[in-house]
Amino acid sequence: MNKNIETERLILKPTDVEDAAFFLVLFNSPKWIEHIGDRNIKTEEDAANYIKNKMLPQFERLGFSNNTVILKESGEKIGSCGLYDREGLNGIDIGFAFLPQFEKKGYAFESATKLLEKAFNEYGYDKISAITTTQNIDSQKLILKLGLKYVKNIFIPNDPEELMLFVLEKEML
Question: Is the distance from CB of 20 to CB of 44 less than 8 angstroms?
Fold first, then answer.
């Protein structure tokens, strides 16, 4: 089973129901709603159920899923970053979201870089994808900075919004 992953400034802890209060805030942050979508998470119990039903089954199946990103220095939860087996995508997808006050500080790049390294070197994947909305310029910039290349626009099941698909293959490193 996956344990905590550490970077220079961060701890990436596999998300569990104990993180429900944090995810209630993150799921309802303006950029989450705008770019990822309203998950209709209105209570801490809703967040706990989302974690139980959406995140933990993949963790149990694959040994990885969503991670709660925590500042080493203070222990404060600041965002999420994970690898996802997402319906409608061929292979594993990397995603990230941070509370507004922790954006543009390099935390998403730091955590995502570490997860890409694990995906290729420990989990045995040869290709990682990322998706984002056409309006989410900050996410697009980060995905490109991580080394992924734009492939095409796509639609995934149960999501009416057109998404941009990016891919990084191990051989591209």
Answer: yes
